[in-house]
Design brief:
Strand order of the largest sheet: 1-4-3-2
Strand content: 5-15%
Number of strands: 4
Helix content: 25-40%
Number of helices: 4
Low-confidence stretches: 3-8
Distance between the termini: 41 Å
Order of helices and strands: HEHEEHEH
Length: 142
């Protein structure tokens, strides 16, 4: 299958999903927190950033957003600023306007983190395969 054919299949699948949801386009959610660091500031360690993000739980599923696999990417710039791509379990998620801000606030609370931007992305779509082993064990107990 060529890349063009693959893109056409993805576009067709997205169109079918949007049609099934009766929406013209997927919602856009962004959240911001924090402030620029002083140039001499030491930037945070990624471990500490992840641990802070793990304090944010999906209220419908009592598992943190990191172990749920909702955090797709964390980009840390040399100046300590962060850009985080995250997803939600579904486009119609009732806490869609809340979770990204909670993630931004949690990340910004770490010493050595500057401005934080969290953007909700829909590709690739979230699935159960993204769950961490810890999240899988927690779900089995629920």
């Amino acid at each position: 299958m060529t890349d063009t054919e693959n893109n056409e299949i993805v576009d067709e699948n997205e169109a079918q999903l949007l049609n099934a949801m009766s929406v013209d386009e997927l919602p856009v959610y962004k959240a911001f927190a924090g402030k620029e660091l002083e140039p001499s500031s030491k930037k945070a360690k990624m471990f500490d950033i992840v641990e802070a993000i793990k304090t944010v739980c999906d209220p419908e599923i009592p598992i943190n957003v990191y172990d749920l696999g909702l955090i797709y990417k964390i980009n840390q710039e040399n100046n300590g600023n962060l850009h985080i791509d995250m997803s939600l379990t579904a486009p119609g998620c009732p806490v869609a306007g809340v979770l990204p801000q909670q993630v931004a606030d949690a990340a910004a609370s770490v010493d050595g983190v500057g401005r934080v931007e969290v953007e909700v992305v829909w590709e690739p779509a979230w699935s159960l395969e993204r769950l961490s082993d810890e999240a899988r064990m927690m779900l089995e107990m629920i």
